[in-house]
Structure formats: C-alpha cells, structure tokens
Specification:
This protein has 24 helices and no strands. The protein has helices at residues 27-32, 35-48, 50-70, 74-88, 93-110, 113-129, 133-141, 150-171, 174-190, 196-208, 212-225, 231-247, 250-266, 274-284, 288-305, 308-377, 382-429, 433-440, 445-464, 468-474, 492-501, 507-514, 518-529, 539-544. The longest helix is centred in the middle third of the chain and has 70 residues, at 308-377. The chain is flat and about 135 Å long.
Length: 551
C-alpha cells in the first residue's frame, strides 16, 4: 500500500523529455561535482530508460498472467492473483482492485475468514488511494478486529493510517492527518520493534512530530541499510527530502528527492510524490525547465495510476508551472525575434552606408576629372589655378569627411554586430542552442511535436495492450494482415483502430486527433473492414475486446 510519502514512476513516452545538462568530465572535475549535481545527472539517465524499466515490469506481469491461466486449484490461483495485486498496486490501481476482487471471490468460495479479512484490508487500502473513501471506510469498519492475526492487525492499522492520510490530502483538513498519526501509533504498538517497518514508521512519527534530529539520525541509518533499487529506499529518501525541506536546505532536499525518484523509476512505481516535490523545489529556484519536466512526469504517472489525491495535488501546481514555462518560452521567442530584427536593421544600415559611399566615390571621381580639366585650361592663370587648388582642397576635405563618416558607420556597425554576437554567444553559453534552432526552424516545430505525440501514444497504447497488433491481425484474412515497417510501432490504420479500442469510435474525433480529413478516416475504416474474416458489423466490437482478460 502506498502512503503519501511514496511516489511514482514514468511511462511515455513520451512524450516530451526536456534535455538537461549531461557531459563527461575528467577525474579532477568529477571530484568537484556536488552530490546534488550527480543525482540530477543520474535522474536524467534513469528518466531516459523509463520505458525500458516499464517493459521489464510488463513482461513480469505477463509471465504471472500466463501462469495464472494454467492454474486450476483455487489456492494456487489466489497466490498468483495476490502477486498481480502486488505488481499493480503502485502501478495501476484499477487493475490492482480487479485482482483483489478476484481473490475475494476465491476467499468466499473457500469460506476462509483469514483470507477474507486479508483481501478486505487490501481492497480498503486500494479504494482510499483511488479516492473511493466511502467504500474504503465501510470495508475497514466492517472488519472484525478481534479475529485478526497479529500480522493482519498490523495491516489493519496501516490501512487506517493510510486512509486518513489520503483523505487529509484530498480534503486538506489537518484533523485527518492527526487521526492518521493516531493509527500510526497503534501500528507501532503491534509491530516488532526490531522490524524495518517499525523503524521507518518510528522515524516518520518523529519527522511529523518536528523531532528533526531524531528523524534525521534514524532515516540516514536506514538509508545506509537499503541499497538501490530496494523499494523501501525510495520511501526513506523521500522522508529525508521532506526533513531537509523543513530545515530549509534545498540542495539536500533535491539530493534525497532525486534518490527517491530514481528508485521509484527503476521499480516502475507510478504512485509517488518525489517528482512533484522536485518540480516544486525547482520552481522555487526559478529553474523552470526542470520544474516543467518533473511536473509533467508526475501528472502523467498520477493519471495513469489513477491515484486521486496525487492527481488533485498535481493539478493544483501544474497550471502554475506550465504558465511559467510558456512565459519563458515566449520570452525566448521574443528575444530571438529582437535579435533577428536587430541583425536585419544592421544589414540595412550597412547597405545604406555602402550606397552612400559609392555615391560619394563617384562624386569624388567626377571632381577629380573636373579638376584635371581646369588645371589643363587654366595652367597659365595663377588666380584661376589658385581657385582650382582651393576647389581641389575642398574636394579632398569632402573626401576625408565622407571617408571618416564611412569608417565611423562601419565601426559603429561592427560594434553593434559584435554586441549582437555576444548576445547570441551568451545564449549559446547558457545551452539554449535547441531554443535558437527550434525558433529558426519554426516550420518544423508542429511536425516534431506531432511525431512525439504519436510516438508517445503508440508506446503507451502498446504498453497497455501488448498483444494488440497480433490480435488485430487475427481478425483479418491471412493475406490481408498488416505488416509494420522497421522501427514502426503503429501505422495509420492501426492507430485509428487503437483509438476505437480506447472507446473513441466517432470518426470526427479520430480525424481531429490524427489530423486527417474525415474522408481519409472513413476510407481507412472501410478498407480494413473489407479485409475481416467475420462479419463487418461485429468488427468494431471485436476490436474493443482486444486485450481483455479471458479465463
């Protein structure tokens, strides 16, 4: 069961990861890197492998499902269903609820009170995480505490503590957090004092009781005992992040929240809090790009896992961070436009300067020709010669003036061009190369984003329905089955029917999402229906059944 101190891990694609600084360094430079910077780099690496970790988890789940399909004995099925519950409880709560309900049927079939109490406690915990508080409360109040074993009694108090914690986060009423701590005390009374769970809950009680020194000592000791990627390490590191937040030490807060996030991503935990907390602390530090990256990951995980109180928390912060990110992006665009306008203006001024210079040179040339003619005609006349000399001096003076003006204009232009160059160099030094490139190639921006969107959609959909392509082809005539290109996850036809599998049957909505014309979507659907083995009328319903569990 996930408490409010645990947190989630990422799926897609996705869909939009913002590049953060990662570069190699010498041994000397490595010694100069702070622990916070090291964790940030490691977190970026782990985020890049998020889909890889998720595929490993899905393969493990698929293996359990295959074993379950072959099981006949109720007790054996119960054990495998419980394994599926454990895999899904921090990954996708709706699926976890489904498997616990299946176990509830088996417990009732076996008429085993111990198993019935066990599944009721599990179900109550899942309902509270999903925001179904009335159902969770009814189940917990209906459990006969006196009939519980010592282990179940600990689960019972833990479920109550989590229930009030989740309820408090959803309602923001302090009294429910207080009640959660009351049940934590009851939990501590029944846990063996030597157990790791007792020590973690004891440190948690000290933290929320503002006994920071005791909490810090106990949590640091626990963190040393758990190695990555043990799931408990994520909880302990997150609690340390909260502790240093209360102490006002942001570097340590980021360090331990980063450790927590790394462990959760490796374990594909989507019910988590550290990514959201990291987004907030980066937002406070005005590091908007990092804040936006982490709040997006947090929101995606919460929606995928269906953790209601996490979704509510993320929804309250996401618009603020998103707005700040959009403002920054707009400011960068405006700054780039200003640079372009300045360069254009300088180019125009330089062209004007050359035109003026050219005209002056032509005038000077003509003056010299006139002077030569006058000197030839008035060679014997001193007065006229003096006048010609005066004219020549005046012409030279004009030449000097225009040459000086030309060099002054060129010098001023070079200075301004140099200032512009320094401004662009500053942006390059701040690692804003991608921003400059995207703005200069803005006609490709929408295509890039659409490609990312569809790629993320394909990855997430195939994670949800890994056998979709095979089952889809099984509905078609053998000679008409679809074959994907290399590195292609879904093609246009498959993507249309993937949306139908998700319940989006309206062609107008499909066309809007895929940016096709309505006629194109209609033609695709008709074309594929003509290839089906069975009746065309049942084809859409058969598509909607793809991926459903069958016993």
């Amino acid at each position: 069961m996930i408490t409010r101190f645990e947190f989630k891990k990422l799926v897609f694609t996705s869909l939009l990861l913002i590049a953060l600084i990662f570069q190699g360094s010498t041994a000397w430079a490595a010694n100069a890197v702070s622990p916070k910077d090291s964790v940030e780099r490691e977190l970026n690496k782990v985020l890049g492998r998020k889909i890889e970790f998720e595929k490993e988890k899905l393969m493990k789940i698929f293996d359990i499902k295959e074993r379950l399909r072959l099981m006949q004995a109720p007790t054996d099925k119960y054990q495998l269903l419980e394994k599926l519950y454990l895999e899904f409880r921090t990954y996708q709560i709706d699926s976890a609820i489904f498997y616990v309900n299946e176990n509830k049927k088996i417990a009732k079939q076996l008429n085993d009170p111990i198993l019935q109490n066990e599944v009721d406690i599990q179900l109550a915990g899942l309902y509270s995480s999903a925001g179904r508080f009335i159902e969770s409360s009814q189940i917990l109040k209906g459990i006969p505490r006196q009939s519980l074993s010592s282990e179940q009694e600990a689960d019972y108090y833990r479920a109550f503590s989590d229930f009030y914690s989740h309820y408090g986060q959803s309602t923001n009423h302090y009294q429910y957090f207080t009640q959660s701590e009351v049940y934590r005390d009851s939990l501590l009374n029944v846990l063996p004092k030597s157990s790791e769970e007792y020590r973690i809950n004891s440190a948690t009680r000290a933290l929320f009781g503002n006994n920071f020194d005791k909490a810090e000592s106990e949590l640091l000791q626990l963190l040393n005992e758990y190695k990555d990627p043990q799931p408990e390490r994520a909880v302990i590191a997150y609690l340390l992040g909260l502790l240093y937040k209360n102490k006002g030490d942001q570097d340590k807060e980021i360090y331990y929240l980063g450790l927590s996030a790394i462990t959760d991503i490796k374990n594909t935990v989507k019910d988590n809090a550290s990514l959201q907390s990291l987004a907030l602390v980066y937002f406070e530090r005005n590091e908007i790009d990092k804040a936006y990256l982490f709040i997006q990951q947090a929101m995606e995980d919460a929606l995928f896992c269906n953790v209601r109180f996490r979704t509510i928390e993320n929804s309250s912060f996401y618009p603020i961070i998103n707005s700040a990110f959009q403002e920054k992006e707009q400011a960068n665009k405006n700054q780039l436009k200003n640079f372009l306008y300045t360069i254009s203006l300088m180019s125009i001024l330089l062209l004007v300067a050359f035109i003026i210079l050219y005209m002056q040179m032509k005038r000077l040339k003509k003056t010299r020709q006139d002077l030569k003619t006058l000197n030839t005609e008035l060679q014997g006349l001193n007065g006229q010669l003096l006048k010609v000399n005066q004219d020549l001096q005046e012409s030279n003076h004009i030449k000097e003036e225009y040459m000086a003006q030309f060099f002054e204009l060129c010098s001023a232009y070079i200075d301004k061009l140099d200032n512009t160059r320094k401004g662009i160099l500053k942006k390059v030094s701040n690692n804003q190369i991608d921003d400059l490139t995207k703005e200069l190639k803005s006609q490709d921006f929408i295509k890039t984003e659409l490609d990312d969107l569809y790629h993320n959609f394909d990855v997430i959909f195939l994670n949800l329905y890994p056998t979709f392509i095979q089952e889809f082809n099984s509905l078609l005539k053998p000679e008409e089955r679809l074959t994907l290109k290399q590195d292609e996850l879904l093609n246009s036809e498959l993507r249309i029917f993937a949306l139908i599998r998700l319940g989006i049957s309206d062609s107008t909505k499909i066309a809007r999402f895929l940016r096709y014309s309505l006629r194109t979507v209609y033609n695709y659907r008709v074309k594929v229906r003509n290839k089906v083995l069975g009746t065309k009328e049942d084809f859409d319903e058969q598509i909607k059944e793809i991926g459903n569990l069958k016993y």
